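Form 7-S
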Amino acid sequence: MKMSTSVKESAFLFLVSFVLITLFSASSFLYPLNPWDDANVFMTIGKAMLSGKHLYTDIFDQKGPVLFFIHEFAALVSYKSFFGIYLIEILCYWGFLWYSHKIMRLFSNSWIVMPLTCLIGLVVVTTDFFFYGDSVEEFSLPILSYTLYYILSYLKTLVIPSKRILVFVGVGMGIIFWMKFTIVVFHFAALIGLLYICYRNNKLQDLYQITLWIIAGFVLLSVPCILYFVQNGTLADMFDAYFYTNLFQYGGSAANGEPDAPWFFFVKLAIAAILVLPVAFTKVRWDFRLLVVMCYGLQMLSFTLWSVNIYYFLVVFVYAPLVIYFLRNVECKRIAASIMILTGIIATATSYNFVTLVNGTFHRGIIPIAQYVNAHKTKTEDVLTFSSHETGIYLLADVLPPNRFFFAPNATKPEIRTEQAECIRNQKPKFLIRKTDPVKTTLVYYDMPIPEDYRLVCHERELFRYHFLLNPKMFLWNLGYTQGLMKNLVDKNTEQQNLYLYERNN
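Output:
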């Protein structure tokens, strides 16, 4: 029995996803570790939940619960590595590529659709927006692509998707909301856009049905999340950690490498407005243009209103397949293929993860420190990340945090300093570990001196990512964005980040 064309295409894109994630995600088995502090926080909390600790009450971070349920599952697959996340990344990226491909097929049956899908996939994982892999934005891409495809399909045919599809859209919306609620601005913008489009087309009944089943899917996903906290008696801790902390205590622009000045808000607003203009004036059907302007525009506005990290912009690639509208009539196969191949080569050659892996300069400083801890630890909860971002020590040394606030986040919570000091006084962890880097962050808020009864036993230095981005020989494409943003925030004399391990005197 022969496979259908769609099955073959789907299988091929799965292979593409496997290759891209394997080569470019630091969660892959090719990499010695994923050095990103956020990813290590997620995995540490997943491991802690597996050991019986309650999320937010016994172990803290301000991201949403679904993200930690994902990492709890990943820890179940592989307790001492990111291999479980690596498998999840492959599946998620496959979903993103498949629905990106389907979006392009709405506009064109050209030969260029499949190679363009692969090129988009390559560009996404090689830009610095992808960072090290294992971000909320990465897990959101397939959900956003799925939603965008069915919205555009409805606009094209004016046939409402099935109830099952709409419920899945709502479930996807719920997953994103309970990972990082700011990304749900995409769904709200889409519904606002559909409201006007349905009004113009005299199809408000369609909007009613679409909204009803999407809300049903959202509730279907949200109820188990809420019940998890109700059952454990931790609902108040969840609201404090996920909603209150993010809305009122998040560290501000300086925490994310942005100039901590009022004028920068207006700079971001101007940039956001400029980026929306090409979409607004594109000569496509008014309803397609309105929908994309609403979704893309409100996402850009959210980046203006909140402090942003560079990886936040990964979700913008959900619109990348729409480039097919301008390439749908390409006939010069040799020229088009040559341009795509050249773009792929440049993208690969400027991938921070891949280039540093090949050059042997990828982050490994935590490995000898973890080996020292493994050789000298006396109990499972023997290490405290002190006044610092997570370092990866809990995963590599196979230990668990001794306290709730086991690292210093980009949120200014006074109780974190108090609890870390109490942990040292009462539980007396054998090791303290600290990471420093040249970017000004809210870590200054948590900066506390190392207690006198701890001595330095290990010190490792490694390449600081943003210094790499400032090298024009390697990253010409990023020069305009990153150098202008970071040049006043990075001390050229201290471009390396440092890892320090302290051991308590006997």
